[in-house]
Amino acid sequence: MNMNATVIGQVIWFALFVWFCMKIVWPFIGKALEERRQAIAEGLNAADRAKRDLAAAEEKVSASLDEAKAQSAEIIEAANRRASQIIEEAQAKAVAEGERLAAKAKAEIEQEINSAREQLRQEVSALAIAGAEQILKAEVDKGAHKQLLDQLAAEL
Known about the structure:
The structure is a single chain. By secondary structure, this protein is mainly α. The chain has one domain (25-155). The protein has helices spanning 5-136, 146-155.
């Protein structure tokens, strides 16, 4: 193999180029690779934190949803109890009103019965007087016989 000055010059220049790359270029490339590795690691850590935060948020949402469901069930139950209470109160008022109206109606009926009886007594006494007039063919004095007629009306 024949070595000449060109090959030796190329080897020297190649060695200088490798040394230059190792001292000047390689640290920048290494630094860029290290920064890239750190950025990827931080991204992975951030993704893990985000997953944990998401899981925690989902648990909070689930707990809040369960709590809201429980509160809505309590509110519905309270509304049902109140509705039952209102219905019972309305029924009690209706029964009381019905009893009051029945008592009022009974009192009115009793009053009408008494009025009818009194009217009937008066008509019977008038008929008795008319009958007595017919029998006696004479006029009976109402004023003179009022006590007798009242006693007759009371007996009827």
